[in-house]
Amino acid sequence: MRKVVILAAVITLAACGQKAELQPAEGKSLPPPAYGESERSDARELLELDPLAAPERSVELRKRSEEREDDPFDLPPE
Q: CB of 30 within 8 A of CB of 43?
């Protein structure tokens, strides 16, 4: 019984990966073009994130420890 459950889980997980291009569902269409644009965006363009939605990470490493400023909201528990 356990082998059947594991096999079903593996098959289910294998079926999750879709390799085909994204298309709108039948009877549906892509959203209308944005205001001021003449052409409608395709699915790939709609899935791209603009830089403000996914900003670059700052990898600034601290060289030595620094004292924290006094925090007036850092109160002991009551």
A: yes
Sequence-distant (6+) residues with CB within 8 A of 34 are 41
Q: What is the pLDDT of residue 15?
A: 64
Q: Give 9's DSSP letter.
A: H
The pLDDT tens digits for 11-56 are: 777 766 666 777 778 888 878 888 888 888 887 888 888 878 877 7
User: Taking the mean position of all CA atoms in its chain, how far away is CA 38?
Assistant: 28
Nearest to 20 by CA among 49, 43, 39: 43
CA angle 44, 46, 50 (to 5 degrees): 105
Specify the DSSP class assigned to residue 43: H
| Rounded-to-10 torsion of CA 48, 54, 60, 61 | -100
